[in-house]
C-alpha cells in the first residue's frame, strides 16, 4: 500500500495524536477568556494604567468582544481543518481494508506499523503453535466461571484459616467489573523481519488481585536474594561496572547480552512454584 503525502503526514504524528475537538474547545473558551481578562487587569493595576470604573468596563467589553471574535475565527478555521482530517482518516481506513493492510502501534516506539494482514496473521499463528500457551475461545466466554472459581478458592483458604477475612475482601473478584484477559501483539520494527511482541492484557482479570498480593509480599524477599546478581537501574549498573573494572576489567573482556525468546510461556508453573518454595526455605 502506497501512502499519499497527506496520509503519510497524518501517520507520522504517531498513535497519541488526536484531532482537536471543537465542542470541547468551545466549552473551554469561557474559562480562557476569564483568565485572560484577569491577567490583563492585574497587569494594568500594577502599572497604574487603569482609569475610572466606566473606562475600565468599556475596555474589558471591547477586549471580550475582540477575544470572542478571534476565538470564533480560530474555531472556524480549526473546524475546516478537522473536517479535512476526518475525511482523510475515513479514506485511509477504507484503503487499509481494501488492500488487506494492517495499521498497528509498535513496540517501544512512537510510530505506526503498516504491513500485510497475511504476514501478521501468519506470525500470530506460528506463535500460538510454538508456545501452545493460549487458545482462541470464540463466542463462549469462561469469564463468569473463572470469577466463581476464584472467589470460591479464596473463601476456602479463609475457612482453612490460611488467610484472613481482610485478605478475602482485598482479593475477591467483582463479577460486574471483571474482564477476561486477552492477548494481542505489537510489531517490533527495530528487529530483523519485524517479529511480534505478545501482550497479555489482564488488568481487570479474575486472578489479577491475587497476583498483586503475591508480588507485594514476595518481591521484597526476591530483592534480598538477588541483591548481588541483579541490576536495578542504569546508575546502579554504571557504579557496579566501575567498581568491577578496578580489579577484573581487561582488554580481553567481552560483554554479552542474552535475549530470551518467549520467556513467560517457557517458565513451567510447577517449576515456578518449586522455585518459590526453595526461596522461602532459604530465607527461614
TrEMBL record:
It comes from the Eukaryota. PANTHER family: REVERSE TRANSCRIPTASE, REVERSE TRANSCRIPTASE DOMAIN-CONTAINING PROTEIN. This is Reverse transcriptase domain-containing protein.
Amino acid at each position: 500500500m502506497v501512502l499519499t503525502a497527506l496520509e503519510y503526514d497524518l501517520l507520522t504524528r504517531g498513535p497519541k495524536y488526536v484531532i482537536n475537538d471543537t465542542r470541547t474547545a468551545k466549552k473551554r473558551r469561557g474559562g480562557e477568556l476569564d483568565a485572560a481578562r484577569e491577567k490583563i487587569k492585574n497587569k494594568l493595576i500594577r502599572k497604574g494604567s487603569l482609569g475610572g470604573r466606566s473606562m475600565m468596563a468599556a475596555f474589558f467589553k471591547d477586549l471580550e468582544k475582540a477575544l470572542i471574535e478571534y476565538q470564533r475565527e480560530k474555531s472556524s478555521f480549526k473546524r475546516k481543518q478537522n473536517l479535512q482530517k476526518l475525511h482523510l482518516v475515513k479514506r485511509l481506513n477504507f484503503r487499509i481494508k481494501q488492500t488487506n493492510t494492517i495499521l498497528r502501534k509498535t513496540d517501544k516506539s512512537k510510530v505506526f506499523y503498516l504491513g500485510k494482514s497475511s504476514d501478521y496473521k501468519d506470525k500470530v499463528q506460528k506463535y500460538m503453535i510454538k508456545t501452545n500457551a493460549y487458545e482462541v475461545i470464540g463466542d463462549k466466554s469462561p469469564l463468569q466461571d473463572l470469577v466463581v472459581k476464584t472467589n470460591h478458592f479464596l473463601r476456602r483458604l479463609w475457612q482453612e484459616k490460611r488467610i484472613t477475612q481482610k485478605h478475602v475482601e482485598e482479593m475477591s473478584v467483582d463479577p460486574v467489573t471483571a474482564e477476561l484477559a486477552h492477548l494481542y501483539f505489537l510489531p517490533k520494527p527495530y528487529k530483523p523481519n519485524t517479529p511480534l511482541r505478545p501482550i497479555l492484557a489482564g488488568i481487570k482479570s479474575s486472578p489479577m488481585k491475587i497476583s498483586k498480593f503475591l508480588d507485594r509480599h514476595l518481591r521484597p524477599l526476591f530483592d534480598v536474594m538477588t541483591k548481588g546478581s541483579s541490576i536495578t537501574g542504569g546508575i546502579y549498573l554504571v557504579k557496579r561496572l566501575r567498581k568491577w573494572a578496578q580489579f577484573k576489567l581487561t582488554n580481553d573482556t567481552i560483554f554479552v547480552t542474552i535475549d530470551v525468546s518467549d520467556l513467560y510461556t517457557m517458565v513451567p508453573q510447577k517449576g515456578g512454584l518449586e522455585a518459590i518454595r526453595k526461596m522461602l526455605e532459604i530465607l527461614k
